[in-house]
Write a structure and sequence with these properties.
Blueprint lengths: L1 E4 L6 E4 L2 E4 L2 E4 L4 H6 L8 E8 L3 E7 L6 E7 L1 E8 L10 E7 L5 E4 L3 E7 L3 E8 L8 E3 L24 H4 L12
Antiparallel strand pairs: 1-2, 2-10, 3-4, 5-12, 6-11, 6-13, 7-10, 7-12, 8-9, 8-11
Length: about 180
C-alpha cells in the first residue's frame, strides 16, 4: 500500500497493491498497521455506499460538530474526488485538491476533519464507498457551493453530457465567504 500526501499534506492518496490475473483481481483496501504507521485513523464509526449516474455531483459536504474524516474509494466506475480546506487557521484555507478514483486504479483518498468533500461521477455509473471517523450528525450537516468562483475548482465538467446533477441542498449551498467554517 502506497500512501502519499497531496498538495495539502493532510489529504492522503492511498494506492493499494492490486494483484490480477484472468480470474479477476485482489486488493487490500484497508490495513490498520499501514494506516497507523502513516498517522491515519484506524477506527471507523460508519461505512457508506452510494450509487450515482454520470454527471451527479455530490458535495461539497462537511459537519461542523462531530467533523468527519473520510476514507473514500470507488468500487465501480470513475469519479473526480475533491477536498477543500475550510479551516480558517490553516495556511491552506480555501485551497482544494483532487484525485481521480476508479475501480481500475483502486486509489483511495483520506479526507481529514476540517475539509469539505465532494465528487462528480465521470463514468456511466459509479459505486462510491467511504468510511467515516464519526457518525453522521444531521443538525451540523453543511454544504459548500461546488461552483464558488473563489475556489475555482476544476470539476472536469467538460467530460459530462450536460450540467451536473445536484441535490437541492447542494444547489442552494453558500459560497465559502458566507459559509460556516472551522476555526
Amino acid at each position: 500500500m502506497n500512501i502519499t500526501a497531496l498538495a495539502i499534506p493532510e489529504v492522503k492518496l492511498i494506492t493499494p497493491r492490486k494483484f490480477g490475473d484472468d480470474r479477476g483481481f485482489f486488493l487490500e483496501s484497508y490495513n490498520a498497521r499501514a494506516f497507523a504507521d502513516a498517522g491515519l485513523p484506524i477506527e471507523w464509526q460508519q461505512d457508506n455506499h452510494s450509487r450515482s449516474v454520470k454527471g451527479v455531483l455530490r458535495g461539497l459536504h462537511y459537519q461542523l460538530q462531530n467533523p468527519q474524516g473520510k476514507l473514500v474509494r470507488v468500487a465501480r466506475g470513475r469519479v473526480l474526488d475533491v477536498a477543500v480546506d475550510i479551516r480558517r487557521s490553516s495556511p491552506s484555507f480555501g485551497r482544494w485538491v483532487s484525485a481521480e478514483l476508479s475501480d481500475e486504479n483502486g486509489a483511495m483518498l483520506y479526507v481529514p476533519p476540517g475539509f469539505a468533500h465532494g465528487f462528480v461521477v465521470l463514468s456511466d455509473l459509479a459505486d462510491f464507498c467511504y468510511k467515516c471517523t464519526t457518525l453522521w450528525h444531521q443538525a451540523s450537516d453543511r454544504s459548500l457551493s461546488y461552483a464558488d468562483p473563489a475556489l475555482a475548482i476544476d470539476w472536469r465538467l467538460d467530460e459530462l453530457d450536460g450540467p451536473p446533477q445536484l441535490a437541492a441542498k447542494d444547489a442552494a449551498a453558500p459560497l465559502l465567504a458566507d459559509a460556516e467554517t472551522f476555526q
